[in-house]
Amino acid sequence: MKLLGICLLFLSLLGRCSPDKSALAEPLSTDGLIIRTGTSFGMCVGYCKHDYVISGTTLMLTQTSQLRTPNQNPVKTCQTTISPAVWDTLKAAANPTLFFQQPEQLGCPDCADGGAEYIELEADGQNHRVIFEHGKTIPGFETLVTGLRAQREALKECK
Known about the structure:
This protein is of the alpha+beta class. The protein is built from 5 helices and 7 strands.
């Protein structure tokens, strides 16, 4: 009985000393970071979905339509560049380690045809997407949301 008591005491102490695995996790690197962002509107005619991919100083836009006929509103893709300073600002605002802790959905995106926005980060081979109501933000990531909106505004559509 005494031996059982000692074993249980030892195991409970060992459990208290084990480190929190989440605290040991390495911060996700922004080296090789890819940022995806975009908007969509469910009840819309024309190019209702805009998807952007930012990788380094390359910004690529893909526009798609809700219509599924190939002759009307075919998929459009174009790209441009952003300055290294803008890219550095976006990377600094991204903070993948904290971003990956955000819920996948905030609010009611595209309810009552209000539209939806999303931001997705790819870092260290992992992806995390947060979708939220158009015009709203992700708490704690206001700088990132604002910076990405500015880039979307600069390249609204493919010619």
